[in-house]
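Record 1 of the preview.
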Amino acid sequence: MHILISERLGYLFDCHLRSTSWRCLQFCYQCCTFILRLLFLPPVLKFIQVSYSLSIINAAISFGIVYLAYRPYPDWPRVGIPAQVAARFFGAVNVFLFVVPLTNPPIGADPYTSLPYWTHAVAGWAVFGLGFLYWVFWAQISPRVGKYKLYRVEERDI
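->
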């Protein structure tokens, strides 16, 4: 069995379902699981999932846009100056949002009564760590144990 590494969708099993209907199904699944997690998680974990992790991802995307402005691929359009300024500002704001929870709050302004102030920040980074471990298992260990190969397939719009 082979598993394809798609440039756009991540890992897909080699089958005929790599069509638009598969993409719609995958998108619907991701939306439904996100909504269900928001409905059934405790309030503290909802904050971790939505706010803290999202600011890390937003900062990475913003600075990725800035990076691509200076090192673009040959066939990509250049990023304009207003977009670079907006990406830098948005990235800086999101860095602020994921660094500030790691600083000690003023006396009497602790967000939790029985937990340390950095609990949600550490839990947010733990979510990324679990995602990394999942990727290591799925993309590195599982192919070796299951004796199959992952290979890259480039998809082009027609």
